[in-house]
């Protein structure tokens, strides 16, 4: 099984290399439109992309993990800036979508090619999610070290190296030495060129300066454990140092493994849930229930984009009235959400808002008793297409925060939902859309004759029109239905019940 996965990842890596030239052209065009995010972050990712194409791709012996880790190492070597990890991962997803778009232009590309790209970028998420929420995990690791009582400890600090400076990541005190939480938070902003200076600052800040408290430094990969002992006369043995180091490294491995399992398990369960769908109605219900069952939300409302009318249409709700949701028909480009955040949504980036009034009309705030919410793009990566959104919250008038890991995991949920709905798109729009005004009566007359097999001249004779006029009608119909040709337009119109 692992060999098969590795082959798929290598296939994805080879596709990235093959498409590198057209990708670079698309990326240069796209970069200016990404300024709404974080320009310095976009610039740094651009540097890493150039490095990947010029240097890393040349090493044919690299596997997927080596490739990803080499890029991360280069990033750490070149840049000291700290960014929101979710923002960075969202940009990575944008890059993935660009490769899907390039693949879709090639008539010889297969669904397996798209899967190889997806597998490769999922592996990137694997590596990136390992570092998310590490502040909480590091704090928990420090608590576990204190609770072992291997040494009589006053406090434990986890220190990270940031270029030429040392930075306090977290500080935990023993139960015998309680300290106000605000003071511990202040410790996290401390930086110094020498670790010893950090220890002095911590002791002074938390008010436990004995002047002679012995300190131990324990290197652990990229981190350093700084331990202040209770008893200056206590003799520390090398075995105790090794035990603490191994315990900390073991905790890191466990947390990394849990990160992989948690997000992959929820994504897999959601995907399996969607696969039970047999109709458009089943699909929209599966999406709304799945987003609540497998993610930390209580309510969900799903909306699709009817491109024929340029309206957002409500299709389903979970723990919220579906009939109320289905009554919603909005011209999407007039909504504050779309006006302000269309760029983010079209790059499949989930968005969190502490106040729903920022982005939704007041009438919906009152009707559905909204406060904090998350907006999830329903996105089709293989077609690089946004087809709807899901709105998620934790109940009526609920104020809540959402973790970066949740937002990152939601990206894949939005992709799975998008692929499912796109596969039954005509059926979904037929069931939930409104098409009465899409075609004029005369356009319907022309299309009905074309569907019955009439030629342009035959349709013109039947309708007492010129052939040129009928051709114009057919061109407009093809454009409105986004069809490939007049035969395809006729087939779509029948599916959508525009003509019988």
UniProtKB/TrEMBL annotation:
The GO molecular function terms of this record are: DNA binding
> InterPro entries this protein is in?
GAF, GAF-like_dom_sf, Sig_transdc_resp-reg_C-effctor, Tscrpt_reg_LuxR_C, WalR-like, WH-like_DNA-bd_sf
Ordered alphabetically, the record's keywords are: DNA-binding, Transcription, Transcription regulation
Q: Tell me the SMART domains matching this sequence.
A: HTH_LUXR
Record organism: Neobacillus citreus
The protein's name: LuxR C-terminal-related transcriptional regulator
Q: Which domain of life is it from?
A: Bacteria
Q: Which residues form the HTH luxR-type domain?
A: 432-497
Q: Which GO terms describe its biological process?
A: negative regulation of DNA-templated transcription
């Amino acid at each position: 099984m692992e060999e098969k996965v590795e082959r798929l990842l290598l296939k994805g890596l080879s596709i990235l290399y093959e498409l590198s030239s057209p990708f670079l052209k698309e990326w240069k065009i796209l970069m200016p439109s990404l300024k709404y995010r974080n320009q310095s972050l976009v610039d740094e990712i651009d540097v890493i992309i150039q490095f990947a194409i010029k240097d890393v791709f040349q090493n044919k012996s690299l596997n997927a993990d080596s490739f990803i880790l080499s890029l991360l190492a280069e990033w750490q070597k070149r840049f000291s800036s700290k960014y929101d990890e979710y923002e960075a991962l969202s940009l990575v997803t944008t890059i993935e979508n660009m490769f899907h778009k390039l693949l879709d232009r090639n008539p010889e590309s297969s669904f397996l090619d798209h899967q190889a790209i997806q597998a490769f970028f999922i592996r990137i998420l694997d590596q990136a999610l390992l570092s998310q929420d590490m502040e909480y995990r590091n704090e928990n690791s420090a608590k576990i070290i204190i609770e072992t009582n291997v040494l009589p400890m006053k406090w434990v600090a986890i220190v990270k190296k940031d270029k030429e400076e040392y930075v306090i990541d977290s500080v935990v005190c023993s139960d015998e030495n309680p300290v106000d939480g605000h003071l511990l938070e202040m410790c996290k902003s401390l930086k110094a060129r020498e670790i010893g200076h950090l220890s002095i600052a911590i002791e002074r800040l938390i008010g436990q300066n004995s002047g002679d408290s012995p300190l131990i430094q324990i290197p652990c990969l990229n981190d350093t454990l700084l331990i202040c002992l209770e008893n200056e006369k206590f003799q520390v043995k090398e075995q105790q140092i090794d035990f603490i180091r191994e315990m900390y490294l073991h905790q890191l491995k466990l947390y990394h493994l849990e990160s992989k399992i948690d997000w992959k398990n929820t994504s897999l369960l959601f995907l399996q849930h969607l696969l039970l769908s047999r109709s458009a109605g089943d699909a929209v219900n599966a999406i709304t229930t799945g987003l609540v069952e497998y993610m930390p939300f209580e309510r969900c409302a799903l909306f699709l984009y009817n491109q024929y009318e340029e309206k957002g249409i409500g299709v389903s709700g979970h723990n919220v009235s579906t009939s109320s949701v289905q009554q919603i028909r909005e011209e999407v480009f007039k909504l504050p959400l779309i006006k302000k955040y269309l760029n983010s949504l079209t790059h499949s980036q989930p968005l969190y808002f502490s106040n729903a009034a920022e982005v939704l009309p007041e009438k919906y705030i009152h009707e559905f008793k909204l406060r904090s919410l998350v907006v999830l793009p329903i996105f089709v990566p293989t077609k690089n297409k946004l087809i709807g959104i899901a709105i998620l919250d934790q109940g009526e008038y609920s104020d809540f925060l959402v973790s970066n890991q949740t937002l990152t995991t939601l990206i894949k949920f939005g992709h799975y939902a998008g692929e499912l709905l796109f596969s039954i798109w005509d059926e979904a729009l037929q069931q939930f859309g409104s098409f009465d005004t899409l075609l004029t009566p005369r356009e319907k007359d022309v299309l009905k004759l074309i569907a019955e097999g009439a030629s342009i001249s035959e349709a013109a004779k039947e309708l007492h029109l010129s052939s040129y006029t009928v051709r114009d009608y057919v061109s407009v119909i093809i454009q409105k239905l986004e069809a490939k040709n007049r035969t395809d337009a006729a087939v779509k119109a029948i599916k959508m019940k525009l003509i019988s």
